[in-house]
UniProtKB/TrEMBL annotation:
<dbReference type="InterPro" id="IPR031161">
    <property type="entry name" value="Peptidase_M60_dom"/>
</dbReference>
<dbReference type="InterPro" id="IPR051244">
    <property type="entry name" value="TCAF"/>
</dbReference>
<dbReference type="Pfam" id="PF13402">
    <property type="entry name" value="Peptidase_M60"/>
</dbReference>
<dbReference type="InterPro" id="IPR035423">
    <property type="entry name" value="M60-like_N"/>
</dbReference>
<dbReference type="InterPro" id="IPR042279">
    <property type="entry name" value="Pep_M60_3"/>
</dbReference>
<dbReference type="Pfam" id="PF17291">
    <property type="entry name" value="M60-like_N"/>
</dbReference>
<feature type="domain" description="Peptidase M60">
    <location>
        <begin position="470"/>
        <end position="767"/>
    </location>
</feature>
<dbReference type="GO" id="GO:0005886">
    <property type="term" value="C:plasma membrane"/>
</dbReference>
<dbReference type="GO" id="GO:0044325">
    <property type="term" value="F:transmembrane transporter binding"/>
</dbReference>
<dbReference type="InterPro" id="IPR029062">
    <property type="entry name" value="Class_I_gatase-like"/>
</dbReference>
<dbReference type="GO" id="GO:0090314">
    <property type="term" value="P:positive regulation of protein targeting to membrane"/>
</dbReference>
<comment type="similarity">
    <text>Belongs to the TCAF family.</text>
</comment>
<protein>
    <recommendedName>
        <fullName>Peptidase M60 domain-containing protein</fullName>
    </recommendedName>
</protein>
């Protein structure tokens, strides 16, 4: 075996063939020197590396480098090249108890650069030289047997205690020399280790266990394993106390290179390269932390490239994923030599790739692993580590699978139902994003892409003044699937937390049956004045403005896109609309005073009177504002988007409100709204008005939002509540109350329609004005309880003070935990002596 590692060039030439660097050749491979001299190179034969001065490349065998290992590593880091030859299988056969990766002489140099001599051997054969390094699924499982490592690490460990509210992240074990240590019963790892260069690393996917003594036996083993018998200095980040009763010698210390082992959490990334070099050159790293909370708070950032822990670990064959693992007691695995049932990412991928390449059916136990493999493949591809051979190897294999099998052409008529097709759909999507040549891959993934006429050099003026949340800015333009365009952006929004978004369907789908891909929206942070943007699935083009941002008249240029039907009330005329509705894009948008509706264009191609639709929605939104006691001009217009499949429910709240495409047409039928109602749509808009201070979750979550449904239908649409929803029929309302009291009047049963009835009884006596005054009062409350009991007492007090009547008896009849202090505050007010719940007392 020959191994080559270098930072710059092995041998430098210029046009006149002048040699710039001398090649140093160890006498033990003197034949190489003779060949190089014949080629006209300047060669210096030496007895050892210490005799090599001013050489640019050093050639040696793998057995003579141990004494010079430290100097050779420094030589490499300074830009030198090392050509090293040898094989380790014979050495390993004579030293069966030795760790070949760490102790074979050649590895003490080459391993630092990520190249290992192993105990494996192959056949003697003549191999062709390919323009690119070939990849094969058969090499995915190359690595090591970790039985000996696990026996050391798990000695005396009975279980892994991850209780006390710990919610760990899930580890992705993707390196050939990485391995799981602690997993759930279904194989999700929270504790893992890896070899990296001459060193080792262990990661636990939550920092809290590093601060307690529950895993003390394991930590002692881990420190020994990481130390590799050096008995060196163990440095522990100052806020960690895990070793205080371990009997191990350590010192509180910040990271430094002279440590043998360093123990830390993940919240700093100021020593990323130094830590990687530290481990590569033989150090031990124990690191702990979770990423799921960071990912939740940093939506739009890539946890694999932007999160500090993964910046350190990715190169070492380990990463931490946003997926989380619940607390519990987890069994310690039994070290085994067999890898047949191993759920290591590379091993599972190797088995899957082998089966599909050969056209074989997957056995049941392998098919069950596909859900986990789908998640791991999509997470792995997010690293975009193009400088890593391991990453490019896996990307190449997944690309080959996507080309060979294609991607399911998912749709409502052709839903994806089985594990294999779900994996191919997700992997195909992520391979396209990661591919260095996505245009060549596109025909394998999407078979029929409509050719739509394009418009060029569209100039869009942006004027925005955002409040406390980000805001989508529509462009009226669309990109077809796989179509890209290089947008030109004003300098004053670059690197200011603006993003470009392609696609309006924001839900991530976790269904077993998919009618579209799991995720069909792309976002690109605006980091330059020219931004290339695209989306495999196509989509409308938006700019997303960050919170508290003011921009006036900034110009954005879109060089190429497809026009979309776009109506804006007060701007688009009736004649304009007759032309705009024919725009070829498959998505249309309607921007009204306080809401923007986004639906498939086919829904509105024949719409004649958009002005009537605008009047309807302007009235609805005014009604929502009236009850909420907020300005009629919303600080951010609501959005509502139709989709063939959404993440949860028939509709759901948010920005945007998501509805099913089947409901899209009714949004544009004013007569339907006034006769049949839009209960669901207004229900979701009501959700968006709920405020934590006056909500008692989970009881009122699906209850108080319906106050807006009742109010809008009766006060705006002129439709009685019992016609707007069958649950509002008087007999049904009575039945829900009767059911609560027959069941023992448990507060746990007070929810949805039952909880709504409490508010409807108040509205029936005191009217909507009372609610408006209560909502107005809450706008002025800055400090309020965090627990339901406290918030319910505050609400009872606020409503009582608003209507000038002591309502404590009424709320107590409903099972509210009204305390004595609240009752005493309300004593001066006249009691509500004839409230409607008296008959149940």
């Amino acid at each position: 075996m020959w191994a080559l590692s270098q930072t710059q060039y092995t041998i430098h030439k210029i046009k006149n063939n002048t040699i710039l660097l001398t090649v140093g050749v160890n006498n033990k491979v003197k034949a190489v020197a003779d060949n190089l001299i014949k080629s006209g190179l300047k060669v210096k034969a030496v007895g050892s590396f210490s005799d090599s001065r001013e050489v640019g490349v050093y050639v040696t065998d793998a057995y003579s480098v141990e004494a010079d290992a430290k100097d050779l590593v420094a030589f490499l880091k300074a830009g030198g090249g090392v050509l090293i030859a040898g094989q380790a299988w014979h050495w390993a056969s004579t030293k069966p108890k030795e760790n070949t990766l760490l102790h074979f002489p050649g590895n003490k140099v080459s391993a630092v650069a990520g190249i290992y001599f192993t105990a494996h051997y192959g056949k003697v054969e003549i191999l062709p030289v390919y323009p690119q390094i070939p990849s094969s699924w058969m090499t995915l499982r190359d690595g090591k047997d970790f039985k000996d490592d696990l026996e050391i690490l798990l000695q005396g460990v009975s279980e892994f205690d991850l209780t006390d509210g710990i919610v760990a992240s899930e580890a992705l074990i993707h390196g050939p020399l990485a391995f799981p240590i602690g997993t759930t019963e279904d194989g999700r790892a929270f504790l893992a280790g890896s070899y990296y260069g001459r060193g080792r690393v262990i990661v636990i996917t939550h920092e809290y266990p590093l601060k307690t003594e529950k895993l003390l036996s394991f930590w002692k083993n881990a420190i020994d394993w990481l130390d590799q018998g050096r008995k060196g200095v163990v440095g522990v980040e100052p806020n960690l106390k895990l070793l205080s009763k371990s009997g191990l010698k350590y010192e509180e210390a910040a990271f430094r290179k002279d440590l043998s082992v360093f123990v830390c959490t993940v919240w700093k990334d100021d020593h990323v390269e130094e830590m990687q070099d530290f481990v590569a050159e033989g150090g031990g790293l124990l690191i702990g932390g979770h990423v799921w909370n960071w990912a939740h708070k940093n939506f739009g950032l890539n946890p694999f490239t932007d999160f500090s822990e993964n910046k350190i670990l990715n190169r070492m064959g380990l990463s931490v994923m946003p997926a989380h693992i619940g607390e519990g007691f987890y069994k310690v695995p039994v070290p085994t030599e067999t890898e047949e049932d191993n759920n290591h990412f590379r091993h599972v991928l190797s088995r899957f790739a082998g089966r599909v390449t050969k056209g074989e059916e997957l056995p049941t136990h392998e098919e069950k692993q596909l859900k986990k493999l789908e998640m791991e493949c999509t997470n792995f591809l997010m690293m975009k580590a193009y400088g890593s051979h391991s990453y490019k190897h896996v990307l190449s294999i997944l690309t080959d699978i996507s080309k060979k099998l294609g991607m399911p052409q998912v749709s409502v008529k052709n839903p994806v139902k089985n594990l294999k097709d779900r994996l191919l759909l997700s992997v195909g999507t992520e391979v396209y994003k990661a591919s260095l040549d996505p245009d060549a891959l596109l025909p394998y993934l999407i078979k029929d892409i409509p050719v739509l006429p394009v418009v060029k050099d569209q100039r869009i003026r942006i004027t925005v003044n955002t409040a406390d949340e980000n805001e989508w800015i529509s462009t009226g333009l669309y990109l077809s699937p796989g179509m890209g365009t290089e947008m030109i952006l004003p300098a004053n929004i670059v690197n200011k937390n603006w993003t470009i978004q392609i696609g309006c369907q924001t839900d991530y789908l976790e269904h077993d049956e998919l009618k579209r891909a799991r995720s069909v929206r792309e976002r690109f942070p605006v980091t330059a004045e020219k931004m290339q943007v695209w989306n495999l699935w196509g989509g409308l083009i938006y700019l997303v403005a960050p919170p508290n941002t003011k921009v006036e008249g900034a110009e954005v240029v879109v060089p190429m896109a497809v026009s979309a039907p776009y109506y804006k009330s007060g701007v688009t005329t009736a004649d304009d609309w007759l032309l705009l509705r024919t725009a070829p894009a498959p998505w249309a948008e309607f921007e009204f005073d306080n809401i923007i509706l986004t639906v498939p264009s086919d829904v509105v191609r024949k719409l004649e009177r958009p002005d009537e639709v605008a009047a309807l929605w302007n009235d609805i939104m005014k009604g929502i504002a009236d009850l909420a006691v907020i300005p009629h001009t919303f600080s951010r217009k609501e959005r509502m988007v139709a989709d063939e499949q959404i993440s949860v429910g028939w509709m759901h709240a948010g920005y945007p409100v998501m509805i099913h495409t089947k409901s899209a047409a009714e949004l544009f039928e004013p007569e339907y709204a006034r006769t049949a109602g839009l209960w669901g749509e207004v229900h979701e808009l009501g959700h968006n008005q709920q405020r934590s201070c006056s909500e008692f979750r989970p009881h009122t979550t699906e209850a108080t939002c319906n106050l807006w449904s009742v109010y809008v239908h009766e006060e705006v649409l002129g439709l009685k509540r019992e016609k707007a929803h069958s649950s509002m029929i008087l007999t049904n309302r009575k039945n829900t109350v009767d059911k609560l009291f027959k069941g023992g009047k448990n507060l746990s049963d007070w929810n949805v329609w039952t909880a709504l009835e409490t508010y409807l009884q108040l509205q029936g006596i005191f009217g909507w004005d009372a609610f408006k005054k209560v909502f107005a009062a809450y706008h002025k409350i800055s400090n309020y309880p965090s627990d339901n009991s406290g918030k319910m007492n505050l609400y009872a007090e606020t409503f009582s003070q608003t209507v000038g009547m002591n309502l404590s008896a009424f709320f107590k009849s409903w099972g509210w935990p009204i305390d004595r202090a609240t009752e005493e505050k309300l004593t001066p007010l006249p009691p509500w002596s004839d409230h409607p719940m008296l008959k149940y007392d």
